[in-house]
Design brief:
Elements: H1 11-32, H2 34-42, H3 64-69, E1 85-88, E2 98-101, H4 103-119, E3 127-130, H5 138-149, E4 153-155, H6 162-171, E5 176-179, H7 181-192, E6 206-210, H8 216-226, E7 229-236, E8 241-247, E9 254-256, E10 261-266, E11 280-286, E12 297-303, E13 305-306, E14 318-319, E15 324-325, E16 330-332, E17 335-337, H9 339-347, E18 352-363, E19 366-375, H10 377-380, H11 384-402, E20 407-411, E21 426-428, H12 429-432
Parallel strand pairs: 3-4, 3-5, 5-6, 6-7, 18-21, 19-20
Antiparallel strand pairs: 1-2, 7-8, 8-9, 9-14, 10-11, 11-12, 12-15, 13-14, 16-17, 18-19
Helix pairs in contact: 1-2, 4-5, 6-7, 7-8, 9-11
The structure holds 5'-O-[hydroxy(phenylacetyl)phosphoryl]adenosine.
The site of 5'-O-[hydroxy(phenylacetyl)phosphoryl]adenosine has 24 residues, from α5, β7, β8 and β12.
Length: 434
């Protein structure tokens, strides 16, 4: 089922709507946000300069830095009396990035999340176990409202207390799991300890996963561990929260809700547009936001987009899963590497799990990379010789495929601290020492 007919509209209709909404947004921010008024004036840019969709390239970029510089509400275009909700983005040091929603923004958010659930095959018959954190993070409440919108039963479990979550999921007969991929895998690990036939206790049929970069290997593990369909959702607080794009039943690519969010892929160094199918930094312009409309927001996320038709009948363009972040890319002794590439190597090695941590440090002037990986339960009881072979295999693959020298340290099962939200994968001690 498709939630909204706009999801299968003709390209021409979608683009006409985008242009109309882009012009309205440009006028809105120019008139109501001093930050953008100043930028337009500095660039000698007028609202009337935006005549077609390609003219978007004339507009200024907006960055996380701009949001922080205007902390907390400086970029809002409405008085606080119109703001019904505030969230803030997670995982950063210093002041958080604050975002706000009007009543109409909340309606858009509920609408796009209803599309996400419908794409995953959910309906009012389903019981949704929501393991995304409730609070300032957009995950919990974003999923909550979307599930209510389609009339499903929502279990607002939030993060943490894994044993209790499993009990609720089992006893309430949840059919849809919503949580980060790493937390979902952790839940499966804990459930498995009860016994190998743990799956018969659960009624899950699908999961909606997102909020962190995830390799194909990790996705497969989550799928296998729970025996469910894997659907992915992408989003960020600055643009709305979860619900910017999500995957259907036909492929791993994510349909972009283009009537609300206008995507560009750019070369993050030069700012130039990249053609469809090529990877670059995702830049998003909100088309319907009232409280916090943003022009050309630099997400830092690396992906590509395609307008190839999808078998599901939706005509919305699709993005591939995030490959990494422009600013999260590790440079180890001059070699660029994304953590997801390291994860890919680990996923293809026998005897280890996808619980790992990448530690980057400096020895003198040289970058030093250490990767801690948990072995599987059966390996620990085996010989040291086997451990040495596994270590050699991973180190060899990292050198052959990614050109990086790393010291792989095999650690005991369950010894790496589990996260209840987004996994902490990288510890970059070089940054701490600057
Ligand atoms: O993580 C919103 C969200 C909640 C998305 C629940 C999906 C599910 P922020 O905390 O603002 O918002 O973090 C946004 O998380 O720029 C990406 O780097 C990363 N991210 C989000 N979804 C995905 C995904 C939420 N499917 C940042 N794959 C984004 C990879 C993702 N990274």
């Amino acid at each position: 089922m498709i939630w909204n007919e706009i999801e299968s509209a003709s390209r021409k209709d979608i683009e006409n709507l985008q242009l109309k909404r882009l012009k309205e947004t440009v006028k809105r921010v120019f008139t109501l946000t001093p930050f953008y008024t100043d930028k337009f004036n500095e660039m000698n840019l007028k609202v009337s300069d935006i005549k077609n969709l390609d003219d978007i390239r004339k507009l200024p970029f907006t960055t996380k830095k701009d949001l922080r510089a205007n902390y907390p509400f400086g970029l809002f275009t409405v008085p606080m009396s119109e703001v019904v909700r505030v969230h803030s983005s997670s995982g950063t040091t210093g002041k958080p990035t604050v975002v706000g929603y009007t009543k109409a923004d909340m309606d858009v958010w509920d609408e796009v999340m209803a599309r996400v659930f419908t794409m995953a095959g959910a309906s009012k018959e389903d019981i949704v176990h929501n393991g995304y954190g409730y609070g300032l993070f957009t995950g919990g409440l974003g999923f909550h409202n979307g599930a209510e919108k389609i009339g499903a039963t929502i279990i607002p479990a939030s993060g943490g207390m894994t044993d209790r979550q499993l009990m609720l999921m089992r006893d309430f007969g949840a059919t849809i799991l919503a949580a980060t991929p790493t937390f979902s895998l952790h839940m499966a690990e804990v459930a498995k300890r009860v016994g190998d036939d743990y799956l018969k206790d659960y009624k899950l049929k699908a999961g909606i996963f997102g909020a962190e970069p995830t390799s194909a290997g990790l996705k497969q593990e989550v799928k296998d561990a729970w025996g469910i369909d894997y659907h992915e959702v992408y989003g960020l607080s600055e643009i709305i929260g979860p619900g910017v794009a999500s995957s259907c039943k036909e492929s791993d690519l994510l349909h972009v809700f283009e009537d609300h969010f206008l995507f560009e892929i750019i070369d993050s160094e030069t700012g130039e547009a990249m053609p469809d199918g090529e990877r670059g930094e995702l830049v998003i312009t909100s088309l319907t936001k009232e409280a916090l409309p943003l022009l050309r927001y630099r997400t830092g996320d690396i992906t590509s987009i395609t307008k190839e038709p999808c078998k599901c009948g939706r005509t919305l363009q699709r993005m591939e899963s995030i490959v990494g972040r422009a600013d999260d890319m590790l440079i180890i002794s001059g070699v660029n590497v994304y953590p997801s590439q390291i994860e890919h190597v680990i996923a293809h090695t026998k005897g280890v799990t996808l619980n790992y941590q990448i530690i980057v440090d400096k020895k003198g002037h040289l970058d030093k990379l250490e990767i801690h990986v948990e072995v599987t339960d059966d390996i620990m009881s085996d010989s040291l010789g086997e451990m040495a072979i596994i270590k050699k295999n991973i180190q060899g693959a990292l050198l052959n495929y990614l050109y990086i020298n790393a010291n792989v340290v095999l650690v005991q099962p369950r010894s790496i601290a589990r996260s209840e939200g987004k996994a902490v994968r990288i510890i970059d001690k070089r940054k701490e020492n600057v």
